[in-house]
Every structure is written in structure tokens, then in C-alpha cells.
Write a structure and sequence with these properties.
Helices cover about 15% and strands about 35% of the residues.
């Protein structure tokens, strides 16, 4: 398993929930390892139950794995694209 923490930008996790158009966004600590987060998500899905993540302020977010539509793990972009421009 990859170490949970290392030096890099903070990690942004977006979680899509089934039967809703909204998504959860969880900003993890600055030294969080994205590969370790992905492994944590995969093990939670395999085990069933609830996926628990702790944000950079110490708040815990739990989502039942049977309600997950998708999980996006990555560093936030400095500029977010809007619209159809190229």
C-alpha cells in the first residue's frame, strides 16, 4: 500500500452519488497521497459498508459504497474550464 502522506498539492476528491445530480467535494490534507486515497476507495468498495474520508479540517465524510456513482481523485486545477471554449 502506498504511504498516505507525501509532499505535494492538496488532493481534491469528488464523489458522485447515485440518484442525485449533486456531488460531494472533499479537500484532503496537503500531504495526502492520491494513490493511497485510490487504494482506500477500492478497499472500501471491496469490503462494502461506508467510504470514510477526513478533510483537511478534520471533518469526516461518509458515503455508503452502494450509493457511489463515481469517485474522482486529483489535484484541483488552478483554472476551471466553463462552457465549450477551446
Amino acid at each position: 500500500m502506498a504511504p498516505l502522506f507525501y509532499e505535494e498539492e492538496h488532493v481534491d476528491v469528488r464523489i458522485g452519488i447515485t440518484q442525485t445530480s449533486k456531488e460531494l467535494e472533499v479537500v484532503l490534507a496537503d500531504d495526502t497521497n492520491p494513490d493511497a486515497v485510490r487504494e482506500h476507495v477500492e478497499s472500501a468498495i471491496t469490503a462494502g459498508g461506508t467510504l470514510w474520508l477526513t478533510d483537511r479540517r478534520g471533518r469526516q465524510v461518509g458515503v455508503p459504497v452502494d450509493k457511489l456513482a463515481y469517485v474522482e481523485v486529483g489535484s484541483p486545477e488552478t483554472v476551471r474550464r466553463i462552457g465549450f471554449g477551446g
